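Subject: for your reference before the review

Hello V.,

The reviewers asked for a structural picture of the protein, and I figured it would be easier to keep everything in one thread rather than splitting it across files. Below is the amino acid sequence we used in the manuscript, unchanged from the supplementary table.
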Amino acid sequence: MTASRPRTRTAALLAGVMLLVSACSSAKAGTPVPNGAEAAAYVSAKFSATLDKLGDRFNGVDSRKSVLDTFARFDNRKINSTVTAVQLGRPPARLAKNHSNLDSNEYLDSYHPANSPVEYLLLGPVYASLAPTHWVSMPYTAGDLNECFWAGTQDVCKMLGAVSDSVDQGRAKTASSKADGGVELTADVTLDAYLTNRVVVFPQDILDQIGADMKTKTLQARIVLDPAGKLTEIELGGTISGGGHELELRSHYRLDGTPTENDLPKIPDPSDVTVLADSAAVSDFYARMGEIQGR
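And here is what came back from the structure prediction:
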């Protein structure tokens, strides 16, 4: 099981939350908005009209630091990883450090300096056979793409996409105001929505063992927005059983302070960088990486 490379799925959820926050601003902290009986319908109504505008909200402007923990277990097979990410400046420099919590030698750090025509990837020891140097570089081709293509955010977009799909099915549950004027939302998310949005990419032999009955069961989602409607935290997880199997999933994203230049690495020395000059070289590199991850 692996986290996937960037792909063209812009999960939709955040652009319209300003409507929700504005409507909640006068509510007492910790109470449902507008009240317990109407909360689910209220959340669904507010979000259903604005679920296609995440790209407008995630536009790469805001500087931030974040942490994303991901755990997935199918019976005795598991992944456990942490992505720490930094986005700083306009245009942004971006760093995403993807480290396994099961093997300290398995990590990949991606770094795109602001305005650089290339992006860099630091290879942990598990991936050392992919290049004779610690770093590889490849042409930066995501300049016109929204933030959901960035390693520090793409999994969050997938989580929000799964929530979006489930809210469309009427599975929103509660909206509660917070003491700081923000809002906390909860929803049930079907396993089918989770798999469709590829929050975690499972190998085919596992997918073949996940029956239709398991896909209808739900995970729990919690989303926290600040008073300005900015996403500060999202959790998605639960345990689902069926067909003699057990699937445990936990993903938790949260902001982690204010970034500074000290959070970014220096541009690697050219002598320690293997250049992947074109798309063919990049494709070959990722194909060989996939072989290592599939072992």
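For the response letter, the relevant points are probably these. The first helix runs from residue 17 to 24. The chain has a mean pLDDT of 82.

Happy to draft the paragraph if you're swamped.

O.
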